[in-house]
Amino acid sequence: MRVLILGIAGGIARKLALRLHAAGHEVVGIDVRPWHDAPEGIEVHRVDVRKRAAEDVFRRRRPEAVVHMATVTAFTVRGGERGRINLDGTKAVFDHCATHGVKQVVFVGRHTFYGAAADSPLYHSEDEPPRALESIPELADLVAADLYAATALWRLPQMTTAVLRLVYTLGTPGTGTLATFLRGRRVPMVLGYDPLFHVLQEEDVVTALHLALEKQLRGIFNVAGPPPIPLSVIIKGTGRTPVPLPAPVLSLILGRAGLPRLSVGAVDHLRHPIVLDNRRFLDATGFQYSYDEGRILRAYADALPVDRTGR
Amino acid sequence: MQTRGQWYGARVSLDDSLAARVERLELPFNEYGVDPYGISKKHLKLALEAFGLLYRHYFRVRCVGAQHIPPRGRAMLVGNHSGGVAVDGAMVLTSTLLEMNPPRLSQGMVERFIHKFPVASLWASRTGQFTGLPEHARRLLEDDRLLMIFPEGARGTAKLFRDRYSLVDFGTGFMRMALQTRSPIVPFAFLGGGSAIPTIFNAYALGRLLGVPYVPLTPYLLPVPLPVRLEIHYGEPLHFQGTGDEEDHVIEGYVQQVKQAITRLIETGRQERQHRREQGLLP
Fold first, then answer.
1. Is the per-residue pLDDT at B13 higher than 90?
2. Range of the structural domain that residue B148 is part of
3. Which of A120, A245, A242, A136 is nearest to B115 (CA)?
4. Does residue B282 have a pLDDT over 80?
5. Distances from the Cα of A32 to the Cα of A16, A44, A50, B69, angstroms
């Protein structure tokens, strides 16, 4: 199968490309970022998914399947450009897929879709609407992209579309929202709260994406691994020190005093949990995680001990 | 504590430590002592130390009929609210941990405001007390947990001292959930909460300012519980057949049966209490 990966220079996308290539698939990728040491046999086009050159890749290479991972968070891109990448980019991807006969699309979304709110159910099913967007508006474009991708299920019925909502990745390179948040020696918490966090090791993320392609999933699926664990356990389990601070103080000193940067709205994600009910995905794919919570935390602590983070 | 043949406090739990009872809970704890709902052994042990002290020595709770609670599998404990703050919930939770063998954790469906407050949210979460949402109830029952439900809701805790043994209207959601999940209902009566916190007035405006439904005021102003002997009477499980999609009048009929069972338990408990008082077994 010829698979086109959008956002191929990202850490998980690279691993997915290697996994698919090793499994005998033909892999093509698009990214504005370079992948200098991409192995022979994996074709990388350094173009913006919203530009004409990207459509040329669709036209010339005629992929049978597309994995859309070219979305960004508030941590990597700020302001209006983030919205344009996430929403306009996603629209362009589905337009190109429809025009050039792509049979299968996997949209890789995030569990933050559901929002963190005090009165939400603990376990979110795929049927729930996004909540608490008013407290963290920088998530709105990702939520919009997710909802837009889901419209392909009825707009483009000839195409097999899967919208995956993945929990936080905690891998050994230390990239990604949660991994970046945990890099320092001291990790802030909101005093009086200790929300559950759902984490998945990146090798398991790759397995889940591979399964979604292989099983030709159609629909919306939550993807999670081991049961969720409290943030304090994650912090201590990765060898860090939790620093509980009152919410107003935390909002003022984030990004200072050795604490990680975080948007003010994201403080709600340190108060309330976002936990996924992944039974639909398990039933559809038979997915089994290989890293349990203890192994995930130990692997992160071994790969990024605090004395090597330079903070 | 034994008083002329009548047990107060938990007798079963005298055989092992409170921490040992938490260890004996049949919940899927991971290597960090946390279950998939975030229930933490560490927090349960600390909570049980505090609640156990209140249960055994402050309120000297008398628990009757704990054998009616299924030792395993899904079930709903459904009872009356008693007392202006959730002393009843805390003592019911303690009773299933101390009086059952093996111990079980009863998981309450709490008011929404609890999880908006720091510390309260953390402790409620770590001890398995979740917001009263149908999604929570269904998932917990499908996971064969023990649910604790007060169908009177906040109106139940708002009862004044003079109404302490009355029951206000029951919601019907719990009955539809019981039918949908085929869960037995164990009725219980909680006695004494209204005397422990003798509410004479509920300050609703003050409550709104503080972000809670109301603040109960007592003759001594603050809703601090008095050391009144409390009683929990569990009844035999009630089994209802249906799908949960029945007409309202059918569901309301079932709810009335539960309400009557609780009323009978309250009356029986009060008569026994009166009898013991006459026998000089109570102060």
1. no
2. 2-278
3. A120
4. no
5. 18, 10, 10, 62
Question: Please, is A258 exposed, middle or buried when counting C-beta atoms within 10 Å of its C-beta (0-12, 13-18, 19+)?
Answer: middle
**Which of B29, B119, B125, B126 to mutate against chain A (most A CBs within 10 Å)?**
B125
In a domain, B31, yes or no: yes
AA identity, residue A143 = V
Element (H, E) at B108: strand B106-110
Q: What is the pLDDT of residue B1?
A: 44
CA distance B32 to A237: 9
Architecture of domain A2-308: 3-Layer(aba) Sandwich (3.40)
Q: B154: domain CATH number?
A: 3.40.1130
CA B131 vs. chain centroid, Å, equals 14
- What residues contact residue A79 under an 8 Å CB cut-off, 6+ apart? none
Q: Give this prediction's pTM.
A: 0.91
Is A244 part of the contact surface with chain B (CB cutoff 8 Å)? no
Mean pLDDT of A173-202: 90
Both tokens assigned to A156: 């483009």
The answer to whether the beta carbons of residues B204 and B269 sit under 8 Å apart is: no
Cross-chain CB nearest to A118 (options B35, B115, B136): B115
| Per-residue tokens: A126 | 């795929």
Q: Establish if B283 belongs to a structural domain.
A: no
Nearest to A144 by CA among A84, A233, A81: A84
**A123 and B135: CB-CB below 8 Å?**
yes
User: What is the DSSP annotation of A171-222?
Assistant: -TT--SHHHHHT-SSEEEEETT---EE-EE-HHHHHHHHHHHHHTT--EEEE
The CA distance from A180 to A178, in Å, is 5
Give me the number of domains chain B comprises. 1
Are residues B30 and A229, on separate chains, in Cβ contact within 8 Å?
yes
List pLDDT tens digits, range B32-90: 999 999 999 999 999 999 999 999 999 999 999 999 999 999 999 999 988 777 899 99
Q: Which ipTM score applies to this complex?
A: 0.90
What residues contact residue A118 under an 8 Å CB cut-off, 6+ apart?
A271, A272, B112, B115, B116, B121, B131
Strand partners, A223: A166
Task: Name the residue with tokens 């999940």.
Answer: B181
Here the tokens at position A304 are 């990024």
Confirm whether B138 is domain-assigned. Answer: yes
